[in-house]
Amino acid sequence: MPFTTEEREKILEALKQKGVPEQCPVCKQGELRVSNYIAFVPVRERHVEVGGNAELDMVPVGDLPCIIVVCLNCGNTLMFSLSRLGLWDEFVGELEAAWGRRR
Ligand SMILES: [Zn+2]
Fold it and tell me: What spacing in Å lies between the alpha carbon of 27 and ligand 1's midpoint?
């Protein structure tokens, strides 16, 4: 489901408050547009086994929900953490409550 007008306004306001420019910082021509999707970026943590054979492994620890912003000219794609934007509860909190888990 695409973001509602109200949700989109909240996202744009949060990005503005954090100082995110409206124009692409790479090509300096294109408008940055908020997509209708939330990316769940898989994140891992280093795990070191100490013992006979030292082993370094990357252990999955979850997914980081992010707003996706795309330049309409060059396609530069930026992702902003919902948590850092203060939008976690708005977009993820209800889902996690429904799934019975919480970060
Ligand atoms: Zn661009």
Answer: 4
CA-nearest of 58, 53, 80 to 69 is 80
Q: What is the pTM of this model?
A: 0.78
Structure tokens at 54: 């030292």
* Chain CA centroid to CA 49, Å: 30
Dist. CA 2 → ligand 1 center (Å): 23
18: how many CB neighbours lie within 10 A of its CB?
11
Q: Could you report the per-residue pLDDT of 1-57, keeping only the tens digit for each? A: 788 999 999 999 999 999 999 999 999 999 999 999 999 999 999 887 777 666 778
